[in-house]
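During the practical work, I selected for study one protein's amino acid sequence and its backbone structure tokens, as given directly below:
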Amino acid sequence: MQPVNDEYERQGQAITAKMSAIKNKILVMSGKGGVGKSTVSVNIASALAEAGYKVGLLDIDVHGPNIPKMLGIDTESMQMENDEMLPYPVTENLLVCSLAMMGADTATPIIWRGPRKTAAIRQMLGDVHWGALDYLILDSPPGTGDEILSAVQAVSGWTGGIVVATPQEVALDDAKRSVAFARRVNLPVLGIVENMSGFVCPHCGQETDIFKKGGGEALAKQFGVEFLGRVPLEPGIVALADDGKPFCLRSKDTAAGKAFVKIAEKLAELSSLSAKPSH
């Protein structure tokens, strides 16, 4: 068993070294699937990169690594250099790593037990050469299982976590568990994003509360955390994600586009980096 312990220790040292060059580590999480967590991750990362920050986006959703598809890089692969993996440069300021870009067959389901998932996440954290970053955004799978727990325990010095929720009661109950999980593992909660908060008609501009509205903000008040903002439903978000184009960059003047930018700005303020983007 000694070689296994030695490898675990080596990996831990590598993770510490890699993470020490990153100013802010932010975990995006949700209590349930289908609330738009990956959409929020992609658009926050893209908005921060567009603002001049050096950003890494790490997809640790082992069973559903969708980030490459949403950025139009699902046919790309990560390269190796000096026994380290290099994240894929989407733009000058945005770097991406995902299991889907490491040779995994995305058409085949990954059927792994906890230890193997933990090993894969630790490898992505320790063997990817990010370099100096202002932000590393981790898009996690829904729930509070092995993947998210492995990431939280492997990395020290977290800036905090963001909980993504939709306004309906069932989704908010799951979001409460995400907040409770974060506090149980001593992960600071930076705030809550209310996604799919109302629907803005693209023709008349009238807003309809399809999934109710205000639940995420009420939840933030209940737990005494920051309400980062609400993002309305807009058909273009889905269409652009399918085409691999971040919505916040292509539709800046829409309500949802402005919401993503404001959320990114608020995160920059919370992490005290608003005036210090890397160049």
Remarks:
- The chain has one domain: 2-270.
- The longest helix spans residues 2-19.
- Residues 43 and 272 are 20 Å apart (CA to CA).
- The two ends are 45 Å apart (CA to CA).
